[in-house]
Amino acid sequence: MTTNVIKKKTVSFKFSSYLKSLLQLMKPRVMSLVIFTCTVGLLTSPNQVPLFDSLICIFFVTLGAGAAGALNMWYEADLDKLMTRTCLRPIPTGKINKDHALVFGIVLSIVSIIGLYYFSNFLSAMLLFITIAFYVFVYTIWLKRKTPQNIVIGGASGALPPVIGWTIATNSLGLEPITFFLIIFYWTPSHFWALSLYKAKDYAKANIPMLPITNGVEETKKKILVYSLFMLPIVIIPYVIGFSGNLYIFISLSLTLYYNYICYDLYKFKKNKFELKKAKKVFSYSIFYLFLLFVLFLVDQIVK
User: Fold this and answer.
1) At what angle do helices 98-119 and 122-133 cross, to 10 degrees?
2) Measuring CA to CA, which residue among 221, 197, 228 is closest to residue 210?
3) 195 burial via Cβ count (<10 Å: 0-12, 13-18, 19+)
4) Is 207 left (phi over 0), alpha (psi -120 to 50) or beta?
5) Residue whose C-alpha is closest to residue 102's, from 69, 135, 130
6) Radius of gyration of the chain (CA)
7) How far apart are CA 33 and CA 113, in angstroms?
8) Which residues contact 100 (CB under 8 A, 6 or more apart)?
9) 20 to 30 Å CA-CA from 230: which of 43, 92, 151, 190?
10) Please, which residues have CB within 8 angstroms of residue 267's CB and are 6 or more apart in sequence?
């Protein structure tokens, strides 16, 4: 009797551990960003969507993001085991079989796209399909191992969730969701290149052509600064087209100018011992910065 109880508990523990590993395979941190930006796109649209419909649609978009993450880990399992940042992921540690990850990613992709089509519209489902396909085939399989521009071009997939949120509500595209896309698209390079500065040894070990490895540290810092400066005109666009008001433009410009400042502060240090610390500061602030920009869109819509 006791032996059976122990066996059941062991099976239950293994099953729950396997489910936890599947969740890790879906890159929950990335999914949380997808949920947030997609929700902002949906809530700032001119059309109101019933709560249940909104939640179910965001759920399927989240599944799609998880599918892309799983397929990314499936394809990059050989690289992940070489890097300290990724060596504890489910496939390198043996918690998930590589073939299982592939099947899991494909099934999630199909379910998410069909589900979003059923509960919303063809345009949203098509954009989700493009997001998954672009991240897996264009970024992961084609670009990542071949060019330091991988993160620039590949950033398009991460910029689409708020656009999908908008199309869920409106079944149409316009200037407003394009501004969401541009903000994330131009934010991505400075964010990831800051990460690559203090993880350069990891990327070099895995032979991934990130900018610090192919072009050097100084060129990377220069590009980080340039892309941070691109954010100035980008954050102004929503105000110019009447999508946001005075509250948004005042705070967003202040946040952006500070971002420019810390990127310049990183750039001006030449092989200084504080260089990596400043790169971490840029990376950490960039996350906070993007989050606040999208919060501002929500708050501005309420205030207007």
Assistant:
1) 160
2) 197
3) buried
4) left
5) 69
6) 21
7) 19
8) none
9) 43
10) 221, 222, 224, 225
d(CA 113, CA 292): 29
Q: Which residues contact 10 (CB under 8 A, 6 or more apart)?
A: none
Helix then strand count (H, E) for the chain reads: 14, 0
* Count, residues in the chain: 304
Locus of tokens 């949906």: 42
Q: What is the pLDDT of residues 186-244, one digit of tens each?
A: 999 999 999 999 888 888 888 899 999 999 999 999 999 999 999 999 999 999 999 99
**Which 8-state DSSP code applies to residue 26?**
T
- Is the whole model's pTM more than 0.85, yes or no? yes
Neighbours of 209 (CB within 10 A): 18
DSSP state of 6: H
Tokens for 239?
Answer: 């105000």
Question: Which amino acid makes up residue 151?
Answer: I
Closest CA to 177 of 124, 125, 134, 233: 124
Q: Which residues contact 87 (CB under 8 A, 6 or more apart)?
A: 80, 81, 93
Could you tell me if residue 242 is left (phi over 0), alpha (psi between -120 and 50 degrees) or otherwise beta? left
Check if the beta carbon of residue 182 is closer than 8 Å to that of residue 243: no
- Rounded (to 5) percent helix, strand, coil in the chain: 80, 0, 20
Any residues with CB less than 8 A from the CB of 276 and at least 6 apart, and which? Answer: 197, 198
158's tokens: 């991460």
5: alpha, beta or left? (left if phi > 0; alpha if psi -120 to 50): alpha
Contacts of 269 (CB under 8 A, 6+ apart): 275, 278
- Please give the single-letter amino acid code of residue 179: T
Chain segment 2-24, per-residue pLDDT in tens? 665 555 555 555 778 888 999 99
